[in-house]
Amino acid sequence: MVTIVPSLIIASLLGGAFVMTAVAPFIRRITKYVPSIVLLFNVLISLGLLLKSTNEPVVEFIGGWEPPYGINLVAGPMGSFLALIISLIAFLISLSFLKYEPTIEEVKFMILFMLSVLGASGLVLTGDIFNLFVFLELMTISAYALVAYGRGGEGAEAGFKYLLAGSVAANFYLISVILIYASLGSLNMADLVTRMTMLKHGVALASMLFLVIGFATESELFPLHGWAPDVYTGAPPSIAALVSGVLVSASLYVLARFFYTVFAELNTLRSEMFAMLMLLGVLTVLFGETVALVQRDYRRMLGYSSIGAAGIILIGLISEILYAFIGALLLIVAHGFAKVPLFMMSKHLEEKYGTRDMEKVKGAFKANPKLAIPLVAGSLTILGMPPFLGFWGKLLLIYGLALKYPIIALIILLASIVEAAYYLRMLHRLVIQDGELKKQIKIDTVELVTYYAFLALLIILGILPMLLSPYLAGAFIELSNPSFYIKVAMGVMGG
Amino acid sequence: MVSELLAIESLATIASAIVAKKSSKVAGIITLTSSVSILAYLMIIGPRVLYDVVSLGAILPGNIVIGLTQVGWYFSFIVALVMLMASMFSLEYVKKLNATYWLLFNLTFLGAIGVTLSIDLVSFFLFWELMTWSSYLMVALGDTRAGLKYFLFSILGSISLLLAFALMWRLSGSTIIPKAFPIVATSSTAIRIQLIMLLTVGFGVKAAMFPIHVWAPEAYPATPQPFAALFSGGLAKLGAYGLALLTMFVSASKFMMFEDVVWGYVLAWLGAVTIIVGAVLAALQENVLKLIAYSSVSQMGYVVVGLALMTSLGMASALYQALNHALFGSLMFLIAGAVYLATGTLNFKDLGGIADKMPLTYTAALIAVLSSAGIPLTTGFNSKWMLFEALIIKNYYLIASAVFVGSALGFLYNIKFIYGIFLGQRPKSLENVNEVGLLALIPMLTLAFLNLAFGILPGIPLQYINTALTSLGIPSIEASLTGIYTNIGYWNVLYVSVGFVLAFGLAMVLFIAGGKLRRVSVLETYMSGFIPPENYVLRINYDFYQPLKFVFGRYLRLSVDRAYAWTASLFVKVADIIRKPIYLGDAQAYVWYIIATIILFFLIFIVGGV
Question: What is the spatial distance between Cα A373 and Cα A358, in angstroms, rounded to a whole number?
């Protein structure tokens, strides 16, 4: 029997990217199949990892070096769950590449796409804080270039803004890593848990602040998200969806990982970090949702909605309440899935009408029910309506928060009213209102397959959320119980 | 057992959605079949406790429980009855419907019947939301603005419910409604006030209670009339269902507190204001659908007042009124549908005098209007009589007089409805109007018959209402098949019927024994025998209540609706003001934000001395 190891996910993407680079000058036509094949493989691998994660989680020591000296990849329930979601979203996005007859530029685009996904997958699997930095750089640097592929000057400008903010953020994280390594001489998360207590409070505080600011920037929290609206409008739609559903979720995961695992033994520090993240989270929800209300640009509106969603997810992730945490994980899935068709719709708008201004494209999807259905369903998912998965996410999040943080629960709920207002206005303009636009939009079959695959996943998981429940509960145990994680990461438990 | 009902309806939804594109008629027949079978099942099984448990695993700290309770049965019966009538009527109406109608119609019904068949909070909320968004889409397809308004108010209701349910669930440790709802009555004052307010808003939105009723007068008319019948006759009742659960569990507990009494009093006033506002505005409408929509708002006010009393009689009257409004309110919408089918218009100024062209519809309309106005021998009277008795027993004289004023105002729109459409001079354009088809007549006449039947035999619905009340430990009210007995009086339909028959007989004798008969035309009656010249317009269908408008004109401007619009525009302005100085569009500025934030937090943590 072949053993499944997490490094397969990394290796396959890297290998795929390498093969594409090597083969592209000669037989360019087959390169378009590589991302989908590799990512499908990754979906299966991470599914296998997830299935094993609750009983005997897989941990791998790279190069056979045991921690704390070597780098380890830990496929606990949390890591493998997110790896699965990331691979799944990336796989379905990569299906839309199949319609290309790729030019050399598009091959490069696909390679960068795979590298970015590689970074994100590595980020959620690694157990080493410096290795995490490497994956972060891989993920974001590829993303800067991908964003710049957007049409005209918009893409380049957004890419530049993202580059500037992202590299500042990454450097802040690096400072944090240096501070920890210089004082404690270790980079392994599991190993650090107990060592952290030896850290002076000042140093610990500084490293925590740099870390939080670094990853808060990556996960578009207020007021550090200045790059995000531009990226969401400037980038190619598929990349906007990737940033919103994959990159941001992976960054949020890192915040949660440090909060729950690395800083587990430092009570004061944790309470400071908690206060800081909650504050940022609440502000993000308020600002993201409010500003989305006044947008006329379809994609900019989606962008601010993503920012708001990041705040909501963060609050749930760090709440330390089981159901709020599960709700947040479900929202990561629901939001990540739903945003792909939503962002991709703007591509159809731009291609057909050359504008994203919702006032100018009234009724654009009325004559195209095939596109209108994923648009409506995606919006209802974001609004948390049954039978879509988003319903369970919001329900459990509020259920978890209601008793301990009623004010925050209320803020999230009031933000949902605003959210409903602008999503409905969008639906009214694009789908329901009669406009002069009666043209049929040409749609590619692979694109339709992508949209409906997301739709099917959202409905299936919405009707049968219990399919996910052992892993979500497992993820909470892994995070809330550092000794469990240490056992897994050190290879004591499982293989 | 019971969850199969939902499975049937889900299958019917899918099947009808698939075939609707090919044949709307077949989709309608599927819908009709499923609603017949659901109603038949409910009638055979009767009110009792029966449930299925579905586990969701570790994802939920409780189970999903689908089933019947006595209170749930009562409301599911109402919803299923209205659905049956509406779906049969839809078959006649089918030419004016598009393919999405059947999908949304069935989804809405699935949500509505699901709410009544949910025993746990999670599935209650789930179906509640399903019902909300499917009915929203239906409204939005007719009128986008009304749809937006409806959905925003619904979301306000949903989030209130969500927060309240989450609190109740955590406090009681159970999702099961019979265990979770009593927590309202036993928790501390602060939590109790929170819960009561949240639940009142949450359910009040659907019941279209003042001041969160403003969506209803626009949403109901935006939908096709058979759907509107389900909407106002079925969905609005579920708001009442929620409020009924709340008030019943609170009053059934032995812990009635001061704040509960205050809440009851406020709620009763809100109900009374709903009655008056709805009635005045209904009378001033120039469109049939708008009139019915406002009248629905007004009629639901009686339900709210009755529940707010939190006495057996009050709650019984509310449950009874909920059934009654389902009977005559949805009937009025169906009549409007029939009139629209026959004439193609629903503006009062184009209608009039079609009673002899559509005698059966006219009969149904007459009964509906009598019942709506609360005339004895129709079922509308019984519940209103009970409500007045209950108000007097409770010593709420001020509210009683307000309700009485509202009830008197109710005559205004009822007269306008029957006169404006069916009586008076007939415009030339309506000379070729014919009676509607059988599939439209059957539901209308059935509902009309039920209005009379329950009017003469109030014991039938009251028997089920008593079952519902006693199932929660609330004392039942005294009623026989034809009579209702309270502390301060009784109402026996039997004596009145006998008296009525005798009086009718006497009148008949006088009529037959009287002078010679001559047919007179409408014009002659109006001009006291003087025969006016041709084309002389006598109709006052338009601007019927001009004096009323003149008197109330200045108060009408103080609309709640405008207050909401003003708030919304204020919010948008604020959002714009926030946006501008923050999103400068300059990459350097964004980097400075990052640095400024880190400095800020350093200062907070270090200077703050944490």
Answer: 18
- What would the mean pLDDT of B344-350 be, rounded to a whole number? 84
For the record, the structure tokens of A298 come out as 């379809």
pLDDT tier, A1 (very low <50, low <70, confident <90, very high otherwise): very low
Work out the minimum CA distance from B142 to partner chain A, whole angstroms: 9
Average pLDDT of span A465-485: 87
Which pLDDT does position A54 carry in this prediction? 81
Provide the pLDDT for residue B59: 65
CA distance A404 to chain B (A): 10
The CA–CA distances, whole Å, from A342 to A366, A427, B245 equal 16, 11, 40
Residue A338's pLDDT band, with cuts at 50, 70 and 90, is very high
Reduced to 3 states (helix: H, G, I; strand: E, B; else coil), residue A494 is coil
Tokens 């670094």 locate to: A214
Q: Which residues of A touch B129 (CB under 8 A)?
A: 384-386, 391
In angstroms, the CA A61 to CA A66 distance is: 6
Place of tokens 């939105």: B205
- Residues from chain A that touch B59, judged by Cβ atoms under 8 A, are 326, 392, 396, 465-466, 468-469, 472-473
| B435 Cβ contact list (under 8 Å, min separation 6) | B342, B357, B358, B359, B360, B361, B441
A118: contact with B, CB 8 A cutoff: no
Q: Does residue B108 register a pLDDT over 70?
A: yes
Higher pLDDT, A456 or B511: A456
Residues of chain A in contact with residue B169, where contact means CB-CB under 8 angstroms, are 399
b/e map A464-473, b = 16+ CB within 10 Å: ebbebbbbbb
Q: What is the number of residues in chain A?
A: 495
Handedness of CA A262, A266, A271, A273 (dihedral sign): negative
For the record, the structure tokens of A50 come out as 């997830």
What does the domain layout of chain B look like in residue ranges? 257-558, 563-607
DSSP single-letter state for residue A319 = T
Nearest to B389 by CA among B305, B454, B515, B325: B305
pLDDT band at B541 (very low <50, low <70, confident <90, very high): low
Both structure tokens of A443: 């749609």
Could you give the ipTM of this predicted complex? 0.79
Least confident of B65-79, B227-241, B280-294, B548-562: B548-562
Delimit the domains of chain A by residue range.
7-489
Segment A41-99, tens digit of pLDDT: 999 999 999 988 888 888 888 877 777 778 888 888 899 999 999 999 999 999 888 88
Instruction: Report chain A residues whose CB lies below 8 A from the CB of B156.
Output: 417
Beta strands, E only, B115-202: none
- The string of DSSP codes covering A49-93 is HHHHHTTS-EEEEGGGPPTTTS-EEEE-HHHHHHHHHHHHHHHHH
Instruction: Report CA torsion sign: A316, A320, A321, A327.
Output: positive
Q: Is B534 helix (H, G, I), strand (E, B) or coil?
A: coil
